[in-house]
Write a structure and sequence with these properties.
The chain has 171 residues and is an all-alpha fold. α3 runs antiparallel to α5. The chain has a domain of 94 residues. It has seven helices and no strands. The chain is elongated. The model has no long low-confidence stretch (mean pLDDT 79).
């Protein structure tokens, strides 16, 4: 356990989170939980499509569904329906879950990106103001080229990611 704690204490994620206020850290944790929930919905929809495929194969071969598929049909309460009705209900339910997940993903992704771009701009402005508040001689020694490079590219990254001109490429 000590190895995990030492790794976490030195991680970039922890240092990045420490820049943010406690309320923003809670929001970041909520974002992670929302993403996990959306992934579980996606997994559940794909699982239902798998059961639909298994049901279709056994139905086309005029066989009874296996124990696992039968247990799923019993959960939905459709074990006594015809094969076509069972397949339709599972298909509609799977599509509804996947479409609902997509709509939730669109809603939350827009809000998450807005939140992160606002916080990125705020943190960037705060770090730049701290940098510029330092004595000029301290910045001009050997840190100035590095600091000006970092602040320039950090501003461009924030502009491109928050304005929508930049899609899916990481620096």
């Amino acid at each position: 356990m000590r190895l995990g704690k030492a790794t976490w204490d030195q991680s970039t994620i922890k240092r990045s989170l420490q820049i943010l206020p406690k309320a923003d850290r809670r929001k970041i944790i909520a974002i992670a939980i929302i993403q996990v929930f959306l992934s579980v919905l996606d997994l559940f929809g794909v699982l239902l499509i798998g059961f639909l495929g298994t049901l279709s194969v056994t139905g086309l071969q005029s066989q009874q569904p296996g124990n696992r598929v039968l247990s799923i049909l019993e959960i939905f309460g459709i074990q006594d329906f015809s094969f076509q009705t069972q397949a339709s209900i599972l298909g509609i339910f799977a599509v509804s879950i996947l479409v609902g997940r997509t709509l939730l993903s669109i809603f939350f992704t827009r809000r998450i990106l807005y939140f992160l771009s606002q916080r990125g701009a705020k943190v960037s402005a705060e770090l730049i103001s701290r940098l510029l508040a330092q004595p000029l001689l301290k910045n001009t020694e050997k840190n100035f080229p590095r600091n000006s490079f970092c602040s320039y590219y950090w501003r461009w990254y924030n502009y491109l990611t928050s304005s929508g001109h930049f899609d899916g490429v990481d620096f």
